[in-house]
Write a structure and sequence with these properties.
The structure holds two protein chains of two kinds. Chain A contains eleven helices and 27 strands. Chain A is an alpha/beta fold. Chain A has two domains: about 10-350, Rossmann fold (3-Layer(aba) Sandwich); about 355-455, ANL, C-terminal domain (GMP Synthetase, Chain A, domain 3). In chain A, the strands form six sheets. Chain A has an eleven-stranded mixed β-sheet with strand order 3-2-12-11-13-14-15-16-17-22-21. A six-stranded mixed β-sheet of chain A has the order 7-6-4-5-9-10, sandwiched between helices. The longest helix of chain A has 16 residues, at about 440-455. By secondary structure, chain B is mainly alpha-helical. Chain B is about 50% helix and about 0% strand. Classes of the chains: A alpha/beta, B mainly alpha. The interface of A and B includes residues 217, 219, 250, 410 and 420 of A.
């Protein structure tokens, strides 16, 4: 199998900043220098258990980043699953028996050996020089991200240091973040997923800029967090957060750039956001398997431009991504129409794959989980037709389970899957409209659901 | 009866029903507003809302009652722990 070109450089530094006095993070209004960061990393690394794998669920983005870096300098691998349900934690233990959990919450209930992120102490950093920034082997495995596979078992996607670094350097260049200004990069997404890891953490470490520890939730929080940062500021977000922020009609302080990913923005919202913020909005297209693949400015073009070195090839009906930082060629889960060299249009998802609020799942996998619940004789999830890009469409499930009630069933599903995939409507039926080969055509399921919903409303 | 609660239970009850109606409308929930009980949890076991739902509800509540929800600390989870706690918060913070 051809590997992406990772031999570019044998090592990359932990952070690419030019001096240890530069700012690498903002936390509650306080600037954190590279020297302080390296001190925090060394302190945390010294106290980490011996296990090779950790689940880093720190909520504070700075804590997460120190945890990630401490793991890297100790040769450990961060496991980043799509959710933290009890079932997922069990699967992680199967994957790596010695896995421990790094967290920063007062009441962590994850069923693994726990390591609490130490309370902040004011230890001044040792005198450091740039030469002491650790150099990390490009081929060192630093993270494994998981996607939900089609059989209910999570699929691991290994990330080596060089691939992550090359990817975010290409991103920083494409976003225009490689100049002598120091950008504060604020994210509304958690750092535990591929998009958040790359665009709110790694990109700051490898473009000489600063990440922001906060994790603003409500529109008013986002506006306040922006206000507190020095200019120039970058907001990294999603279509849902942007729509809510826009609809809140709050004032947004000066931004240099807005970045969006997880799902395509509607053209209207993209225009509205640019008009309100008076800055460019760039969308990123990527996946957990590939990292970032392409970008576009939706107010100027529908076409996506591939990142330098990334190539798309057609294999039958599938489009595969290769090249640059992509470690193993991967089929994409979208229908892609190439328009000219290095440019393409997205024409919808391939049928089995769903994306709810940026979390990707496969209907086959959700159906597998549903049918593994004792008492469920047959069952299927259904994704209703989308109302709009910027709204979150929720699943419906049809089940044959004469001995179960909806509360018991929902509780059983909650233990097995991410809450975003829980069915918003749960319809009990006598049987599913399977055809003679046992297949369940989407149209037949749709007709059944519409009839049942009609009955309920009548 | 708590001394800090300046709003009479009666008006809180009608406010609570109004908020339940907003929730059902904005999230297309399958329950009748009257069926959402004051103390049933919104997250997890009760209505099973997730953080995206909470953001949607926060937006309509902010607009309807002229207040801004903030999550500086863990209050966010407290406010949205039940319909009753959300109602209490809105009753105290509303400007319209």
């Amino acid at each position: 199998m051809p590997m992406g070109d990772l031999g570019f450089s044998a090592q990359y530094p932990l952070v690419s900043h030019q001096s240890v006095d530069e700012i690498v993070a903002w936390r509650k209004g306080v600037a954190i220098t590279v020297a302080q960061f390296l001190e925090d990393v060394a302190q945390l690394a010294a106290f980490m258990p011996t296990g090779k794998y950790l689940l880093n669920i720190c909520y504070d983005r700075y804590h997460f980043t120190v945890g990630l870096a401490a793991a890297i300098v100790s040769g450990k691998v961060s496991l980043l699953p799509p959710n933290h349900t009890p079932e997922m934690v069990r699967q992680l233990k199967d994957f790596a028996a010695d896995v421990f959990c790094l967290h920063d919450s007062a009441n962590c209930t994850i069923g693994l050996p726990l390591m609490l992120y130490p309370a902040e102490r004011d230890i001044p950093p040792r005198e450091l020089t740039k030469r002491e920034i650790p150099e990390i082997d490009a081929l060192q495995q630093v993270a494994i991200l998981f996607t939900s596979g089609t059989t209910g078992r999570p699929l691991p996607h290994s990330k080596c240091w060089g691939a992550l670094v090359r990817n975010v350097r290409a991103e920083a260049e494409c976003l225009g973040l490689l100049n002598d200004r120091s950008y504060a990069i604020l994210g509304t997404v958690p750092p535990q997923h591929m998009y958040g890891l790359e665009s709110t953490v790694m990109v700051a470490l490898h473009s000489g800029n600063a990440l922001v520890s906060g994790h603003p939730f409500y529109p008013a929080d986002i506006c306040e967090a922006i206000q507190m940062l020095p200019v120039p500021r970058v907001l990294v977000s999603t279509p849902v957060h942007m729509r809510l922020l826009f609809e809140s009609e709050l004032d947004i302080a000066e931004l240099a750039l807005v970045v969006s990913a997880t799902a395509p923005l509607s053209p209207q919202l993209a225009l509205a956001i640019e008009a309100k913020t008076q800055c460019p909005l760039i969308e990123i297209y990527g996946s957990t398997e590939t990292g970032q693949v392409a970008s576009r400015r939706p107010t100027q073009s529908d076409e996506w431009q591939l990142l330098p070195g990334v190539q798309l090839t057609q294999r039958g009906t599938e489009t595969w991504a290769t090249g640059a930082h992509i470690e193993v060629p991967v089929p994409l889960n979208d229908v892609i129409e190439t328009t000219r060299e290095n440019y393409f249009l997205l024409c919808g998802r391939t049928s089995d794959i769903i994306n709810i609020a940026g979390k990707r799942g496969s209907l086959a996998s959700l159906n597998h989980l549903l049918n593994s619940i004792p008492g469920v004789l047959d069952g299927a999830f259904f994704m209703p037709d989308e109302i709009s890009h910027d709204h979150v469409t929720r699943l419906v499930a049809c089940v044959v389970a004469p001995t179960l009630d909806s509360q018991v069933l929902i509780q059983a599903l909650r233990e097995r899957m991410d809450a975003v995939f829980l069915p918003r409507r749960l319809i009990f039926v006598d049987e599913l409209p399977r055809n003679s080969t046992g297949k369940l055509p989407r149209e037949a399921l749709k007709t059944l659901i519409e009839a049942e919903v009609g009955k309920q409303l009548a | 009866m708590q001394e800090t609660n300046l709003v009479s239970p009666l008006s809180n009850a009608s406010l609570q029903l109004e908020i339940a109606e907003l929730m059902v409308q904005s999230l297309n929930l399958e329950v009748a507003p009257e069926e959402i009980l004051s103390d049933s949890p919104l997250y997890g076991d009760g209505l099973g809302l997730d953080s995206i739902d909470i953001l949607e509800v926060a937006l309509v509540v902010s607009k309807r009652y002229g207040l801004q929800l903030k999550a500086d600390n863990e209050d966010n989870h407290k406010i949205f722990s039940s319909l009753g706690s959300l109602t209490e918060y809105v009753a105290k913070q509303r400007t319209r």
